[in-house]
Amino acid sequence: MTATLTNPGAPTSAMTGQMCTFWVDGLYFGLQVEHVQEVLRYQQLTVVPCAPDAVHGLINLRGQIVTALDLRCRLGLPPRPEGELPMNVIVRSRGEVVSLLVDDIGDVIDTTDVSLQPTPANLPPTVQDVVGGVLPLPGSILLVVDAERAVDVSSPDTTGGTP
Amino acid sequence: MDDDAEIVAEFLVESHENLDQLDRDLVELERTPDSRELLSSIFRTIHTIKGTSGFLAFNRLEALTHVGENLLSRLRDGKMTMTTATTGALLTMVDTVRALLEAIEHGAGDADPAVDVESVVAMLERVLAGEAEPEAAAPAAGPAPTEAAPLPGGEESTVPVTESVEDAPLPAAAALSGEPSTLPVAESVEHAPPTEAQFLTEEVAAVAAPEPPEAPPVAEPATRVAAPVVEQPAPVVPVAATPAPPAAPPAPVAAEPVLDAEPEEGRRGVVDSSVRVDVDLLDGLVQLVGELVLTRNQILQRTETADDVELVRASQRLDLVASELQESVMRTRMQPIGQVWSKMPRIVRDLALQLGREVELDMQGHETELDRSLLEALKGPLTHLVRNSLDHGIEPPADRVAQGKPAAGKLSLRAYHESGQVVVEITDDGKGIDPARIGDVAVSRGVVSREQLARMEPRAVLDLIFRPGFSTAETVTNVSGRGVGMDVVRTSIERIGGSVDMTSTVGAGTMMRIRIPLTLAIIPALVVGQGGERYAIPQANLVELVRLEGQDLRDNVETLAGAPVLRLRGRLLPLVSLSEALGGAKAAPEGLTIVVVQADEVRFGLCVEEVHDTQEIVVKPIGRQLKAIPMYAGATIMGDGRVALILDVAGIARDRVIGAAHAAEAEVAVGTVDARALLVLEVSQGRRAALPLTAVSRLEEFDLARIERSGGAEVVQYRDGILPLVRLAPAIGLAESPPTEDQISVVVHEDGAYRVGIVIDRVLDVVEEQVVPTEVGKRNGVLGSAVVQDRVTDLVDLDAVVRPVLAGVR
User: Fold this and answer.
1) Domain enclosing residue B475, as ranges
2) Cross-chain residue pair B625–A55, CB shorter than 8 Å
């Protein structure tokens, strides 16, 4: 929230509109509602050994097997404190359904009249990798998640190692 | 003959589908008259119908399609160009074919005089001769009293026209067909060139529109005209997408006469009793049913303890219905293997003619069902094997008679279900496969070396035909022997989770046996527990379960160069800990539960924490984030709704081998006989030597104290016998290492009834790589040196090393 804007302007209208919002490690994120299939409470996870670190496990979404990615890990943020259960933001991407594990769910907000600004350059690269831009809202700054990039987890080169 | 009836039924369904396609193609062709592709497609369709009808002895159908084929081949070769007349003639032919098929379906055979074939044949011939005008075509097709149509000369002279045309007025044919024939259309819409009007909605519109006063009479023909258009599935035919306004209203009406015609039949025709359904839709259904079953399981669990009788009853009904639904939905994906077999008589007949063989084809188990995707995948390999049997198996009649066999060879195809798999056997009584010849060819093609061959069991030699680049046809024939052979067959079968094996007796014949799973969607699997999670191991990979505790464990599991191996009935089985394979810690339990698994040629033991039970699991794909991990084949949902991963046994084997210089490498190779695998040893303090793994029957360690002397040789007592020892280092011209431990490591080599123990420093590794021996380092006992794992390694000439010892024993 303390990030400053380096380059005002350069709006990308493709990433505004109705936003499904959520919190991860105190940061306020938004994802265009078109990408979000549904939001679920914590689901039991099946751990996948040897999977990339960000893959937290698999959940059964009404008979469909969905990979759950931990956004904290994907963003390079510290792990969730013990005992806190994540929520699932179910995202559709390239014909697949993926669950993003987040700390808490916010409202769906309309951001049509706010223009998207580039991600401040001083954010950690892991965050920049996932965030497509920011929306300065009154009182808070919304980091807009690029769904495609968020679910893209490169294969680990640590095959065989424990996460 | 039930078999025949079945074949005919399949022929009908297939032909009807083909004809629908043909209608579309022909219409399309009229727009793009020079499309070679379309012409070829049409030609193939007619050719197929002709071929099968010839086989099934539908002579009139064959005669008709034969002429059509001739016309098409001239069009295809560019000797004639497409005109509306030709299209018209071809469409008339298609309709007549359809009428004949209906007659056949109703049991009348194709000899039904109600269907006028001859005039259509005559018309086609006129078109062929190039004289047909659009106007001429229509009357020719009509009931016009055509005087016995003079056959134009040339290639068509073979078509017999036996019945007089007057006997077969075409309107009758149209009535019988129950479908609007081209003919009444041509009559009623007389102003338009009939052939175009029939199939183009725009034309219909053009005809229908200018004559509003005559609306009622015109509307009638218009409906009939529209009918063929309506029949064609909308998405494929662009015509339907842009209907001219006047033509649109009649369309729904047109559907009615067609529908009305059905009840009169009294029974459902072959064609109407099946519906084509999008496979995606079926897959969706399968998934939904899977979900329903899980929900049912949860409800059942809850109601078991419920007091509400009604609820219990309802849930029991739900249970029953869900089970039946599941079964039915699964069956929608299943198709009888007869579908593939229906093509075999033709293939066999053609090949037999081409190759000058006499063959009796016997097929059993038509009704054996398997998943349609598997059926698709089976087609190619099966055809290939049948061709092979004819080409390489069954001898020419003269040879057979000379050997006292009946002149006609017997080729039998048998399919049946066995323990959740479909087994297909292709058996011939031909000359069989001679291991000696296979061996020679394999050596001459460089598939194996002569030394490797000498050490192979006859069975393993036969297996060489599955190696890439192997083909034994002495002359490259049209049929087989183009170098893409059995390896492709094996690969494609293995890709769908199946296996191919072969038994052959020289002079008596060969049997190829293909085993494939019933379906890829649902498989039986063993559920095991590891680290609090459950994993499914496909039953197809399972060999046996072994539980070892206490003394047995200590006796039978040893660690060789860091790799645990199990002695199982005299063979060494490599062990892989599932925990380690999944990146967990190495466990040191007091008992071992070993699941012996096999994938491809690799057999190994997978040590797991717990074994739960076997159950049918629904295989579901996993996300792309996990695709790169070799250990998992997919995932499934357990009865409690939790996800469980399905292990990919072949993937684990590969991963472990690549993973490090321990575990699986040694195991993989020891467990199987691979002519290329080498056992890499250390001798003479750090020097490396390699032995072919096939020469190693076991690895032993003996206390120095056990070494005794017999004459000049060192021996140990071993397995109720005496094992002569040979120290490898001096035998290959190196210095013997001083004993550092009070044990020696020994590679036991068996040669027939004789055993030799080769004393080494230690086993380093097992590698499976193609090594190229060089002349460097060649000396007595060493074939040469080679680079193995980036280190120079002496390739031991085993014969030279053990010969002196064996000579002493013998």
Assistant:
1) 338-517
2) yes
- Chain B interface includes A66 (CB < 8 A): yes
Output the CA–CA distances (angstroms, integers) from residue B237 to B20, B21, B249, in the order listed.
11, 10, 18
The domain of A81 spans: 16-148
CB B397 within 8 A of CB B446: no
The CATH number that applies at residue B76 is: 1.20.120.160
Q: How many CB pairs (< 8 A) connect A and B?
A: 81
Question: Does this model's pTM top 0.90?
Answer: no
Work out the mean pLDDT of chain A and round it to a whole number. 82
ipTM, two decimals: 0.81
What is the tens place of the pLDDT at every residue in A28-45?
999 999 889 999 999 889
pLDDT at residue A90 is higher than 90: yes
Q: State whether A98 and B635 contact (CB < 8 Å).
A: no
Task: Determine contact, residues B232/B180, Cβ cutoff 8 Å.
Answer: no
> Does residue A9 belong to any structural domain of this protein?
no
CA angle B181, B187, B191 (to 5 degrees): 125
**Identity of the residue in B582, B622, B659 whose CB atom sits nearest the CB atom of A49:** B582
Q: Are residues B409 and B432 in the same domain?
A: yes
What residues contact B11, with CB distance under 8 A and at least 6 apart? B52, B53, B56, B342
Contact residues on chain B for A52, CB-CB shorter than 8 A:
625
Quote the number of domains for chain B. 6
With contacts defined as CB-CB under 8 Å, which chain A residues touch B582? 49-50
Nearest Cβ partner for B584 among A49, A67, A151: A49
Out of B294, B626, B635, the one facing A55 most closely (by C-beta) is B626
Is residue B729 domain-shared with residue B633, that is, in the same domain?
A: no
Q: Under 8 Å CB-to-CB from A51, ≥6 apart: which residues?
A: A156, A163, B625, B626, B629
Residues of A in contact with B622 (CB under 8 A): 58, 65, 67
List phi, psi (to 5°) of A58: -120, 140
Contact B533/A47, CB-based, under 8 Å? yes
Q: Which of A63, A98, A159 sits opposite B637 (nearest CB)?
A: A63
Q: CB distance A63–B623 less than 8 Å? A: no
- Are the CB atoms for B369 and B335 separated by under 8 Å? yes
Q: Which residue has the tokens 């379960």?
A: B545
Contact A50 B631 (CB under 8 A): yes
Render pLDDT for B443-470 as a digit per residue (tens, 0 to 9).
877 777 888 788 777 777 877 777 766 6
Same domain, B28 and B144: yes
Q: Which residues of chain B have pLDDT under 70?
A: 1-4, 31, 108, 110, 112, 131-273, 419-420, 468-485, 497, 518-522, 587-589, 600-601, 657-676, 752-753, 768-773, 808-810
For residue A49, the chain B residue with the least C-alpha distance is B582
Q: What's the rounded mean pLDDT across residues A15-32? A: 88
What local confidence, expressed as pLDDT, does residue B480 receive? 44
Question: What pLDDT score does A99 carry?
Answer: 93
Whether residue B323 sits in one domain with residue B454? no
pLDDT value, residue B782: 83
Q: How far is B647 from chain A (nearest CA, A)?
A: 11
Give the number of domains in chain A: 1
Tokens 């990408």 locate to A35
- CA-nearest residue to B656 within chain A is A160
Q: Do A63 and B644 touch (CB under 8 A)?
A: no
CATH number for the domain that contains residue B464: 3.30.565.10
